[in-house]
Amino acid sequence: MKLAYDGVSARIQQGLWWVVLLVAMALVAPVQAKAPVRAPATTKTVLVMGDSLSAGYGIDVRQGWVSLLDQRLKSTNARWAVVNASVSGETTAGGLSRLPAALARAKPGVVVIELGANDGLRGLPVRDMQANLDRMVKLSKASGAKVLVIGTRMPPNLGRAYTEGFANAYATVARTNGVTLLPFFLEPIMLDRAAFQRDNLHPTAAVQPRLLDHVWRPLAPMLR
User: Fold this and answer.
1) Of the candidates 131, 102, 129, which has an alpha carbon nearest to the alpha carbon of residue 116?
2) Annotated catalytic residue 192
3) For 185, how many CA atoms within 13 A lie in the half-sphere containing its CB?
4) Which residue is catalytic, options 52, 86, 140, 143?
5) Which of 168, 174, 165 minimizes the C-alpha distance to 137?
6) Mean pLDDT by 10 residues, the chain (224 residues)
7) What is the pLDDT of residues 4-16, one digit of tens each?
8) Of the listed 9, 192, 199, 213, which one is catalytic?
9) What's the CATH number of domain 2-29+45-223, 3.40.30.10, 3.40.50.1110, 3.30.450.20, 3.30.1220.10?
10) Would you give the DSSP letter of residue 36?
């Protein structure tokens, strides 16, 4: 397993507003995702399967980190294009149900999986989330794609056993399948309230480049 980072700063445990952030993410109702558009045959595709953090909730979708990734690739590596199949409010079960069709359409060279927060906030068993993520990774690898798993963290008020089990689920899936792991997507901005929209829930457009840079570190070697 290739770890993008060895750990997450203990400072993320600070601030009661973090609990509010995560709870609100679970309240963002899933919306119908548009069918991913197959990239031209001359390009390779990065398929992103995520929730509201990757769907650009509350901002112009063109300002979201996934769109910025597409722009970066077009300017630096014309061989790659991005298909964003993220859905606000998505769970790992929902992502798993949509993945086969997304793989068939996009035929990706890389699959980025950014899911799980809504599972935790709905109180779903960690073993179920882990099983869904594991199946998504296996399906992606079977299609011939490399995989980047992007993790999240649960607030400490859910209890140490749950929060540690939740984090370990991502590590276990990545390790057993031999894929790349980014442990915590929001790590670069978690303690910066100005990095979030007026509702203090979702990242602003201004910090999307920081989130892209955070993902770019483990993702870039996969595009070579």
Assistant:
1) 129
2) no
3) 27
4) 52
5) 174
6) 46 46 50 49 88 96 97 90 97 98 98 96 94 98 98 90 96 98 96 91 95 98 94
7) 444 444 444 444 4
8) 199
9) 3.40.50.1110
10) P
Contacts of 208 (CB under 8 A, 6+ apart): 59, 63, 64, 65, 68
Distance, CA of 173 to CA of 180 (rounded, Å): 10
Q: Where are the domains of the chain?
A: 2-29+45-223
Length of the chain: 224
Q: What is the pLDDT of residue 15?
A: 45
**CA 90, CA 132: separation in Å to the nearest integer?**
12
Residue 202 bears catalytic tag: yes
Catalytic entry in 54, 140, 143, 202: 202
Q: Is 119 a catalytic residue?
A: no
The answer to whether the Cα torsion of 178, 180, 185, 191 is positive or negative is: positive
pLDDT for residue 58: 95
Task: Name, in order, each residue with C-beta under 8 angstroms of 159's C-beta and a sequence gap of 6 or more.
Answer: none
